[in-house]
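Quick illustration, no need to memorize.
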Amino acid sequence: MLRRSRPELVEGDVGCWVFAAKPLMFLVHFVDQIPVTMSSSLALGLDFGTESVRALLVDLRGRERASAVIKYRHGQIIEALPGSREKLPPHYALQHPQDWIDSAAKAARLALRAARASAEDVIGIGVDFTSCTMLPAMRDGTPLCLLARFARQPLAWPKLWKHHGAQAQTEHINRVARERDEKFLARYGGSIGLEWFFPKMLETLEGAPRVFHAAEVWLEAGDWLVWQLVGGDAASLPRSTCQAGYKGMWSADGGYPQEDFLAALHPDFAGVVAEKMPGRLLAPGTKAGGLRREMAKRLGLREGTPVSAAVIDAHAGVPGAGAAEPDTFVMVLGTSSCHMLNSAEERFVPGVAGIVRDGILPGFVGYETGQAAVGDAFDWLRRVTGQRDLGRLSREAAALPPGADGVLCLDWFNGCRTPLMDGSLTGAFTGLTLRHTPAHLYRALLEASACGVRWIVDLLREAGVPVKRFVATGGLPHHNPLVVEVYADVLGAPVTVHPCKHGPALGAAILGALAAGSFASPNAAIRAMAAAKSAPVIKPNRKHRAIYDLQYARYRDLAAQFSGGVRFPNLSS
């Protein structure tokens, strides 16, 4: 039995069409009782995930008119490059840039058709994207991988956020930064992350110098997509302060890392910012430009439609979850998880991956934390245990007692993001016997994921950053309610599940409305478009508290064993 209050449907019934069209599959949602009666009244959110892009159309009161999902033709490129049989190295995760454009065009047109809307109805476009997903390009925007001479070179292709080929470079960057006592380290909890922008650039310089030197522009995929939408030369390409601040070691007061630090990493790296990172930095919600003619035709939209600067997909989940106020811990639960918090307090918290003023919403210090494998880990367990779907596994796990009959898991199956920022760490199961089943493993994995969240919350609170409320958004809370139940029990606090099933896409649409000038402030836009009048609240079972307190202590002990002890750098300076 789910411990939740059921909200009532306020407007319309939601339906869906599922189409199978080789080699793509797409899903269209529509709301059939909300007539489009006003022109120029819809905002489009383009939500670029790991496997697909979603196009969401909402009106300025936040009512969903339609959404469409299109999978990327090439998905995640992890085995071999397109057209090649040569195996990619371990830990590589790449993507095809043409997939982003093609899938977005199909999704936008399907959503418009399902909403029975015209191009003139769309007043603004917002874009959120996985991060740090990045690529090398020429000054005209052409990705290097689309040039014949680089098509077979893996490091010329876009590196997906989960690409973990830059382990050595990440360690080198952190070592040099600590030796030099670089001030920017304090904003990132003392460590630069394996998935970030500069490690991936340095990996290319050291692993494929011909590619590095040929690249004229290095940029985040979200910035590249917005650049393609609005056009312009490389000098004016719009770069998101969100992506730069959290993944690119940039701050408003200090800029990017200084040339002498970059030279200390590698002599050929010294001028990379000045020579290969042109553009203008814009906050999400700021108009990056108007939709250029070619892209307007492809998407079925009006030329000149305002386009917002990009935002990290998980960060878009904050406005999408209606979190306009501080001290709300927003959990964007998906393939991986990002947990964001806006606060009036600025504290440099060891182990917290990003502390950026105005990084999520203006007027607040935005804290980003996260877990590197959540939905990915659940699906991995399903596959290795031979289960056909997670639904049955989840039902069997729900019938088990808290503590999974003695099975304990460490959920570092794609490394540890917060608080250790170490992609080389590995996961584990302990306490297994012959009587345990796949459901026990699954329950233990859910509990480990929840313990990881509790650890993050403890870090913030211990450093003086208030955490008063929990909101869950993203795909997992709606598709897998047991996850939220276990999280609530382990945290010992209620968790609100925002009713929008597409939080990041809604957040992107809100930014599109802001770019169009439809609201005076981000807070006004969030309150108008994402306020949840009625939302499910998952309450903790107090009878489980003592069990989970013990489980959490065991989890922390296991984490210390597998990490060689909890390692936090000294940030007191």
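The two ends are 51 Å apart (CA to CA).
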